[in-house]
Write a structure and sequence with these properties.
By secondary structure, this protein is α/β, with parallel strands linked by helices. It folds into two domains: 272 residues, Aminopeptidase (3-Layer(aba) Sandwich); 138 residues, Alpha-Beta Plaits, CATH 3.30.70. 34% of the residues lie in helices and 22% in strands. The protein is globular and about 80 Å long. It starts with a helix and ends with a helix. InterPro entries: ArgE/DapE, ArgE/DapE_CS, Bact_exopeptidase_dim_dom, Peptidase_M20, Peptidase_M20_dimer, Peptidase_M20A.
């Protein structure tokens, strides 16, 4: 599209932006917390909204009350593009620490308020609106535009994107995931993830005789934790071709005021998430479980970290076992030169009137699954980053509108043969 065509389309969206904000507000009013995992209400609402816009939908129940919804706007070409988002949110937590009802969906002082506003119902509203807008305005895209909404990205990540891909319900030449991102910086790659539980086994005894009787699994676990955390000190051989992208991402990190985080993309991070051990204060602990979350940069793998951890634990002479769980992936990315990345970045720049560029993410998401199936993908969605997964979650109304504009323009550009 040329500039004049884009400007005309932008104006049409702006004329209908109240519909977008109302849609987002209504999504925020629906409780879709996970791990409860019941996406019935929010899926039914979206299904009805899309059908009213004249679109057909297909719903797949991958597990009890976990619904995937797909809707497709057929185009005039062979290319296909996916707009993807998850409908679940993390739990609200302690409601007394919220200054507003987390399911109010209120618009106040230029913000939409509620659990999931940034992660990621603001983005979900944008991609739903994008498909409905094109249908209602009778704009036929140059190729097929597919909306995919999944139920469990926040907890388990089993019955959403990977389930759809495995069962061949999804395929495309490119994809946008409406996950939260910086307004000018979509994420085109991410670190890997390796979560594991180490169980330390001790010998029980009477607490009044410790450390002369028994062997405390908790004490051994303290040593194990210290050794496992040294994984952060490992020097990683970053592939040379990725160094420019990492340097650009570190520039973004510094520009965002996150001083001290510039090492994150080149190091393995290691978080001690939970510790559970012992049966009572008067008993020498015979078992202690510790869960770790390691994020892996380019240049290392899950297997290498696993072997490192085993070597460190074996040297301690303790009895233990290791069990992997949760997210598991190696670092992955989509080239900034890929058409899906260029179409998004170019249209962010056009909408925002500022220079945009893609960066790496230190967390992980559904993007890795698309890349495993050879589908180029990047993430871009509205966010008030400091409120994600926290209390008083919110998102700027203007960012929700701008992202919807980017989704529409990028889709039409990308689907051109």
């Amino acid at each position: 599209m040329n500039g004049e065509q884009k400007d005309q389309l932008i104006q049409k969206v702006l004329d209908r932006k109240d519909e977008l904000i109302e849609l987002c507000s209504n999504l925020l009013k629906i409780n879709s917390e996970n791990p409860e995992g019941d996406s019935t209400e929010i899926t039914n609402f979206i299904d009805e909204f899309l059908k009213k816009a004249g679109l057909e939908t297909t719903i797949y129940e991958a597990a009890p009350k976990r619904f995937n919804l797909i809707s497709e706007l057929k185009g005039n070409g062979k290319k296909k593009m996916i707009l993807c988002g998850h409908t679940d949110t993390v739990p609200v937590g302690d409601r007394s620490k919220w200054s507003f009802d987390p399911f109010s969906g209120v618009v106040k002082d230029g913000y939409l308020l509620g659990r999931g506003a940034s992660d990621m119902k603001g983005g979900v509203a944008g991609i739903i609106f994008a498909l409905a807008f094109l249908k209602q305005e009778r704009i036929t895209p140059p190729g097929d535009l597919i909306l995919a909404l999944v139920p469990d990205e926040e907890c388990g990540d089993i019955y959403g994107v990977p389930w759809l891909l495995k069962n061949r319900y999804l395929d495309a030449d490119g994809s946008i995931i409406a996950e939260p991102a910086s307004p000018l910086n979509p994420t085109i790659g991410q670190k890997g993830s390796y979560c594991f539980k180490v169980t330390i086994y001790g010998k029980p005894g009477h607490g009044s005789l410790s450390p002369f009787a028994g062997r405390s699994a908790i004490v051994d676990a303290m040593q194990a934790i210290k050794e496992i955390q040294t994984v952060t000190d490992l020097e990683i051989n970053i592939p040379e071709e990725l160094l420019p992208l990492i340097d650009l991402s570190n520039k973004f990190i510094k520009d965002e005021g996150m001083d001290g985080y510039d090492k994150v993309l080149k190091k393995i991070t290691c978080n001690v998430g939970t510790i559970k051990g012992g049966t009572g204060t008067n008993v020498v602990a015979d078992k202690c479980e510790v869960k770790f979350d390691c994020r892996l940069p380019f240049g290392t793998t899950q297997e290498e970290v696993y072997e490192y951890v085993k070597t460190k634990l074996n040297a301690l002479g303790i009895e233990y076992s290791i069990e992997r769980f949760g997210f598991r992936s190696n670092a992955n990315y989509t080239s900034a030169q890929d058409p899906i990345c260029k179409s998004v970045v170019d249209n962010i720049s056009y909408v925002k009137k500022k220079n945009a560029y893609g960066v790496l993410q230190w967390a992980c998401s559904d993007a890795r699954h698309f890349r495993e199936y050879g589908i180029p993908v990047l993430q871009y969605g509205p966010a008030e980053t400091e409120t994600i997964h926290g209390f008083d979650e919110r998102v700027k109304v203007q960012d929700v509108v701008d992202c919807a504009l980017v989704y529409i323009l990028a889709a039409l550009d990308f689907l051109e043969d």
